[in-house]
Design brief:
With about 425 residues, the protein is of the alpha/beta class. The chain folds into 2 domains: about 250 residues, Glycogen Phosphorylase B (Rossmann fold), CATH 3.40.50; about 170 residues, Glycogen Phosphorylase B (Rossmann fold). The protein is about 35% helix and about 15% strand. The chain is built from 15 helices and 15 strands.
């Protein structure tokens, strides 16, 4: 496929900042989870800061995994270019990349894009099906890798061993077979390690994730940069009086309906009579099983996929967001979404969730079903305590996880990497 000739997005008279290239497998609307949303928010934040961003993502990879067509794409701002790769080979393209650890069918096009755009900074995001570690050698720029998942140390990305437990030690070959995925032989060839030197900085999304990478033998130091919510009109808290989406008190679960998200541990708490309901926003391959577990329980309501505006209303009316995840997340972006609506969080004492709850003061932690039931009861019975958590979470969002806080931190990492490279252009444009 030929490259577009019109490069007006890069008119120096309109954009005088840095030129960023973001390489990622998934980007909205061709995405499944928080990593694609995080890439989009960072891209838009950089454009608002005066820079230019090109995102290169792989449609074939999405369509190989998606059950249906994506939702409509939202318009991107001037200065943000999105290049959607379609190889014409369907699932074969991401499959070859998955096995080879480098771009195969899209290799020439990616090289052309990097040469044509002459990026100052290249940031690799989730590149598992776009190019793998072989992609690190492409292009000449300051280079960063943001570890949205644990792909650098885990073939299945999530450190969820054999589909039943958190991973406490490598059993990668058997684990991949359990997931019915072909083993990635390149992981035993040193391909990743040989290509790490092309990347100037590696970034983890939380202190927990950084420590987990070290525990599993990742040989490079990592900076920590969290996700954030945008500082535009989409992120303004609506303080006007609103009517909750339903009259009875309710707790809300938001996320993909998968075993690792732990919703099955929550459903029994809503059996029989009770003062509050459970609202479930999201869908996924485990959804049918969860609906069967809930049966015809009138206290449990499955919404399916919910748009952002409607979801904000459900957050705002909830007593708390429940986050019972069983796996090692790298962050927990839904906690920020709840804090934005002044909604407290009750999260499992696992992975990065304690880190987020303790640094925000915006919620409670649980380790078992009894602790979860006690936390839910306290928030229902003690409105003043709930209000204190709500205020703390909202304040922490502004201080720790806002665009105006995180984007400058990302640029500081770029500045440090450019200084090590001796890249005078990048340093001058960031001065």
């Amino acid at each position: 496929m030929p490259l577009p000739e019109d490069l007006s997005l890069f008119d120096e008279n309109r954009h005088t900042g840095l030129r960023f290239g973001f390489l990622t497998t998934f980007y909205p609307p061709y995405n499944f989870g928080g990593d694609g949303i995080g890439v989009q928010r960072l891209s838009r934040g950089l454009v608002r800061a005066g820079h230019r961003v090109t995102v290169v993502h792989d449609v074939d990879a999405y369509e190989a995994l998606a059950p249906g067509p994506p939702p409509p794409a939202s318009p991107e701002p001037d200065g943000l270019e999105v290049v959607s790769l379609r190889s014409g080979a369907g699932v074969l393209s991401p499959l070859l990349t998955h096995q080879a650890g480098r771009p195969i069918i899209n290799a020439r096009r990616i090289r052309q894009l990097l040469a044509t755009r002459s990026f100052d900074v290249i940031t690799y995001h989730n590149i598992s099906l776009l190019g793998g570690p072989g992609l690190y050698a492409y292009g000449d720029a300051v280079k960063l890798h943001m570890a949205h998942e644990h792909w650098l140390v885990c073939p299945t990305h999530v450190l969820w061993r054999h589909g039943r437990e958190v991973c406490t030690g490598r059993q990668c070959f058997r684990c991949q077979l359990h997931y019915r995925r072909p083993p990635q032989w390149w992981r035993w060839t040193g391909l990743l390690e040989r290509n790490l030197h092309h990347v100037d900085r590696f970034i983890a999304m939380s202190e927990f994730s950084r420590a987990k990478h070290m525990e599993f033998g990742f040989p490079r130091e990592m900076d920590v940069l969290p996700y954030f919510l945008p500082d535009d009109r989409e992120a303004v808290e609506d303080t006007s009086p609103t009517t909750p989406p339903q009259s009875r008190p309710y707790f809300i679960f938001v996320g993909r309906l998968e075993l690792i998200k732990g919703l099955q541990d929550v459903l029994p708490l809503f059996e029989g009579e009770g003062a509050a309901d459970l609202v479930v926003a999201g869908d996924g391959e485990y959804g049918a099983t969860l609906r069967a577990m809930a049966g015809h329980n009138p206290r449990i309501r499955f919404l399916g996929r919910v748009g952002s505006d409607e979801l904000g209303e459900w957050y705002r009316g909830a007593t708390a967001l429940l986050v019972p995840s069983l796996c090692f997340e790298t962050f927990g972006i839904i906690l920020l979404e709840a804090f934005r609506q002044s909604t407290p969080v009750i999260a499992r004492r696992l992975g990065p969730l304690p880190e987020l709850i303790e640094s925000s003061g915006g919620g409670m932690l649980f380790g078992d079903r009894g602790e979860l039931a006690a936390a839910m009861a306290r928030l229902l019975q003690d409105p003043a305590f709930r209000a204190t958590l709500a205020r703390s979470g909202r304040a922490a969002l502004d201080a720790l996880w806002s665009e105006r806080t995180v984007v400058p931190r990302y640029l500081d990492i770029v500045r440090s990497a450019a200084a090590d490279r001796g890249n005078a252009r990048v340093l001058s444009l960031l001065s």
